[in-house]
Amino acid sequence: HEREEVVPLKGCIEKLVRGMAPVARRRGVSFRMRISDGLRVAISRAELTQVLQNVCENAIKYNRKRGRVLVSARQVGKRALIGVYDTGIGVPKNDLARIFDRFHRAENARLLTERGSGLGLSIVRAILDNHGCRAWAESVEGKGTTIFFTLPLAVGRRSRRAGRTPEDELK
User: Fold this and answer.
1) pLDDT tens-place string over residues 6-41
2) How many other CB atoms are there within 10 angstroms of residue 154's CB atom?
3) Cα separations (Å) of 5 from 30, 110, 155?
4) Residue 149 CA to chain centroid, in angstroms?
5) What is the CA radius of gyration of the chain?
6) What is the DSSP code string of 129-161?
7) 3-state class of 118 per DSSP?
8) Could you tell me which of 140, 94, 145, 142 has the C-alpha nearest to residue 120?
9) Is-contact 36 65, C-beta < 8 A?
10) Where in 14-57 does DSSP place strands (E)?
11) Ramachandran assignment for 139, one of left (phi > 0), alpha (psi -120 to 50 degrees), beta (any other)
């Protein structure tokens, strides 16, 4: 796994959403964010970007016209809890337990589009597993899906960029 960094979560998510906005707009999908200020996570920026990108791409791809995506993040104990909510096609109950498996694509996803390898969420799970974190999904077919995942908080760790701990910035 990549070299761990201290990454400000809000800035990373905002940058990713800005980059995906044109694709979302073309598909008629709007993005909203509800990110707690000051969350810093201990993961490489490349891995964090990969996780967020894979989850958000699915939220756009399997959404409906004039659909919505909400990315939220808040602190829960020593972890950041991220949720990516969409108003898309949802995942059938019999597929939900397997959506993080390699090459698995839900039946309704295969019917909707031929694009997709079924690797995106398995990559997400592999990255998170390497950090002792987890991912799970909740879904109602025809209403939407929420992908949740946790990330380790960087409390007390030094940021290579600033050379300061998050606590130093509160002084």
Assistant:
1) 999 999 999 999 999 999 999 999 999 999 999 999
2) 22
3) 30, 37, 12
4) 7
5) 16
6) HHTT--EEEEEETTTEEEEEEEEEB-TTPPPTT
7) coil
8) 145
9) no
10) 30-35, 40-42
11) beta
User: Which tens digit of pLDDT belongs to each residue from 42-65?
Assistant: 999 999 999 999 999 999 988 998
Residue the block writes with tokens 């490349």: 46
Give the single-character DSSP code of 169: G
Give the count of beta carbons closer than 10 Å to the beta carbon of residue 1: 11
What are phi and psi for residue 113, nearest 5 degrees? -150, 145
Long-range CB pairs of 119-122, under 8 A, 24+ apart, other chains included: 120/54, 120/55, 120/57, 120/58, 121/54, 121/55, 121/58, 121/147
Residue 114: the pLDDT is 47
Return the residue matching tokens 């990315």. Answer: 71
End-to-end C-alpha distance for the chain, whole angstroms = 33
Global pTM value: 0.81
Reported for 159-166, long-range contacts at CB under 8 A and 24+ positions apart, including other chains, are: 159/5, 159/6, 159/40, 160/5, 160/6, 161/6, 166/6, 166/38, 166/40
